[in-house]
Amino acid sequence: MPTSPDSPLYNSRIFDSYLKLLRKRYPNVDTHALLAHAGMKRHEVSDPGHWFTQRQVNRFHEKLVQATGEQGIAREAGRYSASPEVLGPLRSFFLGMIGPEYIFYFINKIAPRFTRSSRCTARKTGPREIELTVAFNEGVQENPRQCENRVGFFEAAFLLFDHDFPEIEHPECVFKGGEVCRYLIRWRPSLTNRLLLAQRVISLFLVAGLLADLFYNHTLLGPALFLGLLAYLSFTLLSRNVERKALLSSLTSMRGSSERLLSQVQENFDRALAINEIGQVIATRTELGEILSSVNQVLHKRLGYGRGIVVLLDPQRNTLVLQGCFGLTTEDEERVRSIEFPLAAASSPGVLVSCFRTQQPVLVGDIEEIRGQAEPENYALISALGVRSFICAPIVCEGEALGVLAVDDASREGGLLQSDLNLIQGIAPVIGISVRNAMRLANERRLSDQLRKASEHLERRVAERTSELSQAYAELEYLYDSVSHDLRTPLRVIYGYGELLLEGYGDKLDDPAKEYLASIIKGGERMEETLDRMLDFSEVKSALPALQPVDLSLMALRIMSELRITDPKREVSLEIEDGVVVTGDEKLLAGVMENLLGNAWKYSALKGCTRIAFGQNDGICYVRDNGEGFDMAQAGKLFLPFQKLHDGSRFRGHGLGLSMVRRMLERMGGKVWGEGRPGEGATFYFTLPPADTR
């Protein structure tokens, strides 16, 4: 993928060496102005994990030459990179090689630590000659001073081994029309190599002198041999001394490097433990307060951050609220709690709010950078707390921002770095998962408590309603019995005197009066029948069923024979299945069959031929007729007392028959339902449980 001027290409260690050179040799240069002109920050340069863009590098070199007045400052900085304070652990790595030429054999592995702009390869072209080729990635356009800095770095490789400056030719350069930058590096032997060479020459001279002494005059060769031996010992001591110094220097560098590496290993170990402990917190804590308190302790104990806060969203107030902190005194904590973080503020939102809104981490290397962004009173408080740099990381779960984690360490020299930002950025989502789980669990508990209270309230209401219904039902049953018994006597008096009037004074009454008396008598008789049915309806509930085998086929034949006597001229077609035997109360089943067959007989009276069928199919008994039928939309009224689906002037009835059928079947553990169509008849089905289940 092609790079752009704003792609991060150059490691901060390159420019850290520039700043160290300026502090040592150009102390009058204003490094703050230099970095500001380049768009760099001091903490970014100090962070070995930070990378700068080509645009920033160009502005840096432009201002650097202007500030120092040195056109060759880039090459000088490249040479200075060989110093111990710049290379750090890499110095020990380089010194562990046999000679400077071996550094270039590993250049393709070393270069990516410093630049992403190019690829560097090396090949040996002579005993002390190497050709280096730098090929730039697509879209990269460096400036000439970067080429000079690269040459200075090549020279620094030889300075590490106390070599003289090598001879470097630059036959091909991208700034002179070349496709790549090609360098030819030649060098002379080092001091150690020269001493060893002199030692070997003298040793050969001594061997030749000793052989000549065997054959020639001892007097002439003695002084020469003595001088040669003295020279040999001198060169030997000198070379050993040089080697010892080089070895001591290498060991010193390796010791410092080892200490730094051990410190880095300990830091990585503490970070791994911190992440592990945070994972344990998530697995063992369910309360939000406990989770935040434990996480804060881990951050403070394992990672060494001096202070930190966790602010979470308050949806009702639409603001960020402090939920946890560490490293703050009680007084400071109260002062921090007084800070408002409204999310809907029209003015400058502040760092924490911006971090929450954008869900992007923020590293503030110097609080001076946010002076204009923060509220004056908030900035004053942060400054009073001694905050110099801090990190904000959004607490996010499933793409939703829940809050912000912010840490700082006033005791750390140089402030927080990119590596700290990467660590906190990795921890914040883990906190987000635990916070979301704790919130969901709290909501579930709250909902469960509400449901439990609602259930208890509903149970109380149901119990109250049940008690009220039971009492009302008992009163209704009492009223049923009372009305049925108490109305019977005055009713008989009414229609009884009517009969007496009709019999004793009928000849004295005109025809309308006789009709009135006849209507009174008939009404009284119907009312008495209704009262009888009401008594039967009430008795059905209190009667205890006597279960026994009952032949419903024989019962249906008997009932139909009695019905045919009431209307012997009617044309009737009967289909009664033989052998339908069920287990139930004979008296109750007689009431069921009388009502169902009686209704079939009554509602089919207006048909040219009455067709009635009774039978059983898969344990379900049925009574079918071709009578008036009914609308299924009104089927819910079939089994309610005093509910009639047909005109009372055409079909007499009191509206209690089917309700009594249902009650009688329920007393035996059965059920009943009906199906019909207007003008096409009806079918009523009923079931009884098997005898062995009662």
Automatic annotation (TrEMBL):
Entry-linked InterPro entries: BphY/WalK/GraS-like (IPR050351), GAF (IPR003018), HATPase_dom (IPR003594), His_kinase_dom (IPR005467), HisK_dim/P_dom (IPR003661)
UniProt organism field: Geomonas diazotrophica
Lyase keyword on record: no
First-level EC class: transferase
Xref: PROSITE patterns: HIS_KIN
Catalysis performed (reactions): ATP + protein L-histidine = ADP + protein N-phospho-L-histidine
Protein name: histidine kinase
Source taxonomy: Bacteria, Pseudomonadati, Thermodesulfobacteriota, Desulfuromonadia, Geobacterales
Record keywords, A-Z: Kinase, Transferase
SMART domains from the UniProt entry: GAF, HATPase_c, HisKA
One Pfam short name: HisKA
PANTHER family per the UniProt record, alphabetical: BACTERIOPHYTOCHROME, TWO-COMPONENT HISTIDINE KINASE
The enzyme's E.C. designation: 2.7.13.3
Histidine kinase domain location: 482-692
